[in-house]
UniProtKB/TrEMBL annotation:
<protein>
    <submittedName>
        <fullName>Carboxymuconolactone decarboxylase family protein</fullName>
    </submittedName>
</protein>
<dbReference type="Pfam" id="PF02627">
    <property type="entry name" value="CMD"/>
</dbReference>
<dbReference type="GO" id="GO:0051920">
    <property type="term" value="F:peroxiredoxin activity"/>
</dbReference>
<dbReference type="InterPro" id="IPR003779">
    <property type="entry name" value="CMD-like"/>
</dbReference>
<feature type="domain" description="Carboxymuconolactone decarboxylase-like">
    <location>
        <begin position="25"/>
        <end position="103"/>
    </location>
</feature>
<dbReference type="InterPro" id="IPR029032">
    <property type="entry name" value="AhpD-like"/>
</dbReference>
Length: 111
């Protein structure tokens, strides 16, 4: 398992193992979707983070914060995307996303 695998919940790893063929095809679709347009890696990561904040998906927020940092997106840009959720998704969802992102940053600083 690569370094990112340590962040994946056991149930997700189990699902990937049990349905490897389905997951491989899903990953291929995800790659094709990301390659289908002109957006660069930074923009893709920030858009996907915004979608995750809007969905109030803890796992997706954490994952997309990690992926954004991995492609060089600044903490300030990530913070702005989370703050943009305030007027659309609401204060509680924004604070929750902030907490999840803060935990990712904290874990990165501990390493």
């Amino acid at each position: 398992m690569d370094d990112t695998g340590k962040y994946l919940p056991e149930i997700y790893r189990s699902f990937r193992s049990r349905f490897a063929d389905v997951v491989e095809r899903h990953d291929a679709v995800a790659g094709a979707v990301e390659a289908a347009g002109p957006l660069d890696d930074h923009t893709l990561r920030l858009v996907k983070l915004g979608i995750a904040v809007g969905a109030q998906s803890e796992g997706a927020v954490r994952s997309n914060v990690r992926k954004a940092l991995d492609v060089g997106v600044t903490r300030e840009a990530i913070e702005q995307v989370i703050l943009l959720g305030l007027t659309t998704r609401g204060f509680p969802a924004t604070v929750a996303a902030w907490q999840w992102a803060s935990e990712v940053w904290s874990n990165r600083e501990d390493q």
